[in-house]
Design brief:
Blueprint: E1 13-16, H1 19-29, E2 33-34, E3 42-47, E4 50-56, E5 67-71, H2 75-85, E6 94-95, E7 101-106, E8 112-117
Parallel strand pairs: 1-4, 5-8
Antiparallel strand pairs: 2-3, 3-4, 6-7, 7-8
Length: about 120
């Protein structure tokens, strides 16, 4: 039997001025699972193959200039789910000039999550 390959992955590490508020938003609004013991200065959340880490910062300006991009065929279903959940600051799901169908979500601190897929994946 062939050994499974553990591919390298990119995992965003975003700033958060309030780890507990970040935990609540990602868990309760976006459906992520908290995957490490409760800590005041670091948070790891995961949903399927998506994993995001957060580090505590007192600088409230940092999240407003931070973002990550999440890409794949699951994106249309995520937009439908987030819409049904009433997630605030959810953009329309539309084809952008660079030919990606995308939507955006800002978390409570300003971190931008950009979700996208090729239009033919929809």
């Amino acid at each position: 039997m062939a050994e499974a390959i553990d591919f390298a992955r990119t995992i965003p590490v975003l700033p958060s001025p309030d780890i507990k508020a970040s935990r609540d938003f990602y868990r309760d609004q976006l459906g992520f699972e908290v995957i490490q013991p409760e800590m005041d200065d670091y948070l790891i959340v995961r949903r399927g193959e998506m994993e995001i880490h957060f580090w505590y910062t007192a600088d409230r300006a940092l999240p407003e200039v931070s973002s990550c991009y999440i890409r794949g065929g699951e994106v249309p279903a995520l937009h439908a789910e987030f819409s049904a959940r009433g997630v605030e600051k959810l953009s329309p799901f539309t084809v952008r000039p660079w030919n990606m169908k995308e939507f955006y979500v800002h978390d409570p601190h300003g971190n931008l999550l950009r979700f996208g897929c090729a239009p033919e994946e929809v």
